[in-house]
TrEMBL record:
It comes from Kwoniella bestiolae CBS 10118. Residues 1-24 form the signal peptide. PROSITE patterns: PROKAR_LIPOPROTEIN. This is 3-carboxymuconate cyclase. It comes from the Eukaryota. Keywords: Signal.
């Protein structure tokens, strides 16, 4: 009975914040953002049917974010991740993971499951979840740069003690990068392989090589299988991972040149490996895929440019379109640090890109049948202003985006 009363109170409070009934059909989804403050918070926004965002509330994770480290504080992708109705958050400075349950009909209502869990190393920066929802794996970037995995159960996350892989990065706490830091993790669609992108020293002839570590995954074990290299070579800085639709291949961004396309086979080998040169790029770090437009979008941190491209799922050949420049209100490059696609319907996607330079989120409409490669700006969402007005103090270290689409009501 007490739990029911608390839930009703939360719903009523959220209704007031939204300025309408929390059950109002105008709200299609929720957007989550990590504050990266010393007192880490998840910033929760409701998404309207037209894609625009509205701040709802924040919830403390009980851990510590990156703190004031400037733009791209984590030098990674997937520090905040939605998987089904679960939200995973990394608290890098306190070496912890937080797990939340998302109410599928009211996704701005999230409740923590269990207590925070030790990451199994120092300074976790990326997380991936297996397709069957039984495992979560984490890359630690600090002085104990281990890949560790966890079982997912009703009470939270439980470290799998039998698996620990040392990336051997010889880092500090916090790590100094981007070179010699892990970037991202991903499971293959069948869940039998986990792979981790690791940035090298940035010099092909000295120090650690940029590489991809591949692991076998079974129901009860994880084991290292092989080390492979992207087409950019050992001097590259492989970064984020985006699956290529209708294929067994992946788009792997690389700030040294643009991106690579890799097809990873079950035996851990790479059967296709090619680079995509993005003209004028300076630091292409993230990417996202829109199923409605069948377009991929790469994010350049330094130049603050979003570049659309198509990739043929059979030949894996890429076609680039002109980039879209994002600036702050003062006209300076915006420092783009992340991107997510929200799939609203078979006719409409939206692209959300976080701008660390002014703590905003740029919202772009991606309709079916739209002009190839174009981005239609819907909103410059003043997320930082909205959160700071509640007593928060988010700054340029803000990083981490995730989206949950509301269930039918």
């Amino acid at each position: 009975m007490l739990t029911s009363k608390i839930s009703l109170f939360l719903f009523a409070g959220l209704s007031c914040l939204l300025g309408a009934s929390a059950w109002a059909s105008d709200y299609k989804a929720a957007l989550y953002t990590l504050s990266q403050e010393a007192d880490q918070a998840i910033l929760i926004s409701a998404l309207h049917q037209n894609g625009s965002a509205e701040f709802v509330s924040s919830i403390q994770t009980g851990g510590k974010g990156a703190g004031a480290r400037g733009q791209d504080a984590l030098q990674s992708s997937d520090s905040l991740l939605v998987h089904r109705n679960l939200l995973f958050a990394l608290n890098s400075a306190s070496d912890e993971l937080s797990l939340f349950h998302i109410d599928p009909k009211e996704p701005w209502d999230i409740q923590q499951i269990g207590n925070n869990t030790w990451s199994g190393g120092r300074y976790p920066t990326s997380i991936a979840v297996s397709p069957d929802s039984t495992k979560a794996c984490v890359a630690n970037a600090g002085s104990e740069s281990y890949i560790r995995c966890f079982s997912i159960n009703e009470s939270g996350l439980e470290l799998i003690p039998s698996f620990s892989f040392d990336l051997g990065l010889n880092q500090t706490d916090p790590p100094v990068g981007p070179p010699k830091t892990p970037s991202d993790l991903s499971f293959t669609a069948d869940g039998q392989i986990l792979f981790v992108t690791v940035k090298g020293s940035g010099n092909a002839t000295e120090g650690l090589a940029g590489r991809i570590e591949i692991f076998d995954v079974s129901s009860d074990t994880v084991s290292h299988k092989s080390t492979v290299y992207a087409a950019s070579g050992p001097g590259g800085l492989p970064f984020s991972v985006t699956p290529i639709a209708d294929s067994a291949a992946y788009l792997v961004t690389d700030p040294t040149g643009g991106a690579d396309i890799l097809r990873i086979e079950r035996d851990g080998s790479i059967s296709y490996n090619a680079s995509i040169a993005i003209p004028g790029q300076a630091a292409t770090c993230w990417s996202a895929y829109s199923p409605v437009t069948d377009r991929y979008f790469t994010i350049d941190l330094t130049r603050s440019v979003i570049t659309p491209l198509t990739i043929n799922s059979t030949t894996l050949e890429a076609t680039l379109f002109p980039g879209y420049n994002v600036t702050t209100s003062s006209g300076k490059p915006g420092s783009l640090v992340d991107a997510r696609i929200a799939h609203f319907s078979d006719q409409q996607d939206y692209l959300y890109s976080l701008v660390a330079g002014d703590q905003t989120v740029r919202v772009f409409s991606l309709p079916a049948g739209g002009q190839s490669g174009t981005l239609d700006l819907v909103q410059t969402y003043e997320l930082g202003v909205a959160y700071n007005s509640t007593g928060g103090a988010v700054g340029m270290s803000i990083e981490g985006l995730a989206v949950f689409i509301r269930s039918s009501w």
